[in-house]
Amino acid sequence: MLWPAMILLVFELCFLLKQRFEELLPVAAGTAVLLCYVLAVFQALDWFPRIVYAAAAATLIWCLLLLTRGNAKRKLRAFLTNAFTPGLICFAAIVVMLGVAAAPHRVTHTDEVYVWAIQPASLFSHNGFVDWFQNLSPRFMTYTPGVHLFQWIGLSVRGEWAEGTLFLWLWLLYAVLLMPVTRRITWRQAWKIPLFALGIVLFPAVFNAEAYRILRVDTALGIALGYATVQAWRLARERERRGFLRFSLAVALSLLVLIKQPGIGWALLPPIIVLLAGSKVRGPKRSLREGALMLLPPAATFVSWLLVCRALGLTGQHLSLLAGTAEQVIGGQMPSAGDLSTVAGALLGAMATGSADAAAGGIHLPQLLWLLVFLLFPFILHRAGRMDRTVLKRLAGLMLGSYALYFLVFYLALFTAFRPEWTSPATPASIAPLLTNLSRYGCALWYALMMLYADLSLAPRTSEPREDVRPSARIAARALAVALTVAALLGLPWNVLRENLLPGRYPGCELTGELESLADNSFWTDSIDDPNAIVLLASDSYPYNRGWLQYALAPLKLVMPYETDLDADGVRAMLKNYRIGYFVSEGDANPLCQLAAEFTEDGWLDAYTVYAVRWEDDGVTLVSLE
Question: Which residues, in sequence order, are CB contacts of 195 under 8 Å at separation 6+?
Fold first, then answer.
């Protein structure tokens, strides 16, 4: 019932706000994620369906009351125009297409086991955020939970845990944020619906071949940035519906921060667009004020996330590395001049030569060539009469500045976030593996610019092509547009798309079988009734990758100590400090098993038997559940 209730609520908002379905959908989705974020802080995610049901019912009554006042026929006609649009049909087709494609998908990558699948599992099992002791992901703070909360909504709609649902709702997030591109389709142009649906599905893979293969959120970050960029441009240039545009932009920027921590940096781009694109229309002071106010929602969201993590004792790898680097700089430990020059040279070389890393997507162009490509797009739009010269200059300047700033930030990241991954003195060979991330982390900017250009190219002409431009120049501009489109289509990772989106082509992965084998071998879990229990697991031979075992047995929280020199007091302290509820030993030859036997009632501990931890005063006893 949750899915129909959410769609009904969007329809009701179409009636009340007089907005089209495809424009309200991303705002509603972003607001839902922000609501889930607040509820998750209090471990109250189960209230989300109740709030949706209550809101849908109350809004329905409100809509019916409004229909009794005034011209009901006119209001219904306006509602049908805004709610039942070509964009709605396009979205429905995409949901069906992606739903069929995502059903067989399973976790196939180690990063998914560590982060992208285990964090939604933690949210789903604990009904929100929990402290370090209960959290299934040891560094939950490393990545903000926006996409995971959206996936939690999908799991709630389904009613059970399913890895395919994680993939589906990640892909649906792409589609939801891209839906406003269909707002100009009329029913007379219904033949465009399949083309737009196909374009929306293909677009996420243009710059990132992993968009449909792995649960990473880099593509979602880029598309969210693109949505915010388009909304900022519209706010700067349009005179109507400014209240709705302001709210949608505030939601988009907050969502941007919740998708991934770098979103707080990318959130600066839309306000700059408002300043540059709107100063001529609305005046520099007003544009500056609007741009500054836009920074408040994402800043508040990011600060709240830091406070939540601090309150729960959660840590994050990236911020820890940045803090450590800052301490070194303050202490006078600066990078050597040789490292600075070597890294700079390697980075410039990567910009000029490109990378064959699959994460860069299907179009393996060097970054400098991408810069040229994006500089050509405003020229095409100007020749087509959709952009005046002033806007062209400002957009080109913004683009160059954004590129320069991104590469500067990436250069600094090589000495901060990525510093543990190479040793000094730096060499081109040691830096090269890190440079493959240049396109992966920079694709957010490429998506944002491409979405802005697409929206501008579909907009009505703002001016007629200049008469003093030779026909040959116009023909050249059109030919260039066609060439870029063909290059994008040819460069798409068609093999990846075929394997992940076509029914019956999904290849699966050996990791799935290994995870199932780990779960089957841990038959002792059947004795534990509490699905969120914390278990101290001893073993004669832990699996090569302990993270795999943790994911396979989720939502149980496993504590698998690396210490080999523990004594009885150390075991007692571990049971208390980690809030252990159960103890299990896979085998009886490991030191931890032999030490734990001292706490049983008879001094004997059976392997593969679950023991409950019982505390009386300061004493602890392990009681067999068999």
Answer: none
pLDDT value of residue 165: 97
Q: Are 98 and 171 in contact (CB under 8 A)?
A: yes
In terms of domains, do 548 and 588 share one?
yes
DSSP string, 76-106: HHHHHHHHS-HHHHHHHHHHHHHHHHHTT--
- Single residue among 452, 482, 503 that ends a domain in this structure: 503
The 10s digit of each residue's pLDDT in 79-119 is 999 999 999 999 999 999 999 999 999 998 888 988 899 99
3-state secondary structure of 589: coil
Contacts of 185 (CB under 8 A, 6+ apart): 85, 86, 87, 90, 192, 193, 196
| Neighbour count for residue 311 (Cβ, 10 Å) | 11
CB distance 31 to 251 below 8 Å: yes
Residues 412 and 369 in one domain: yes
| Structural domain containing residue 600 | 512-624
Instruction: Name residue 600's beta-bridge partners.
Output: 622
The phi and psi torsions of 535 (rounded to 5 degrees) equal -120, 130
- pLDDT tens for each residue of 492-530: 888 888 889 988 888 877 788 888 888 888 999 999 999
| 586-614 tens-digit pLDDT | 988 888 998 999 999 888 999 999 999 99
Q: Are residues 532 and 584 in the same domain?
A: yes
What is the mean pLDDT of the segment spanning 376-396?
Answer: 75
Q: Which of 486, 503, 520 is the last residue of a domain?
A: 503
Model confidence over 271-290: pLDDT tens digits? 888 777 765 555 566 667 77
The whole-angstrom separation of Cα 309 and Cα 319 is 12
CA distances in angstroms from 34 to 21, 166, 201, 216, 384, listed in the order given: 20, 18, 25, 20, 39
Name the nearest CA neighbour of 220 among 273, 283, 311, 151. 151
Position 122 scores a pLDDT of: 93
Contact of 149 with 31, CB cutoff 8 Å:
no
Q: Are 143 and 261 in contact (CB under 8 A)?
A: yes
CA distance 35 to 152: 12
DSSP codes joined into one string, 521-585 = H-GGGGG---TT-EEEEEESS--S-HHHHHHHTTTSEEE----S---HHHHHHHHHHTT--EEEE
pLDDT confidence of residue 237: 80
Same domain, 522 and 421: no
Please give the Cα distance from 273 to 266 (Å, whole number). 12
| 3-state SS assignment for residue 615 | strand
**Which DSSP string corresponds to 424-450?**
SSP-HHHHHHHHTHHHHHHHHHHHHHH
Provide the token pair at 521. 């071998």
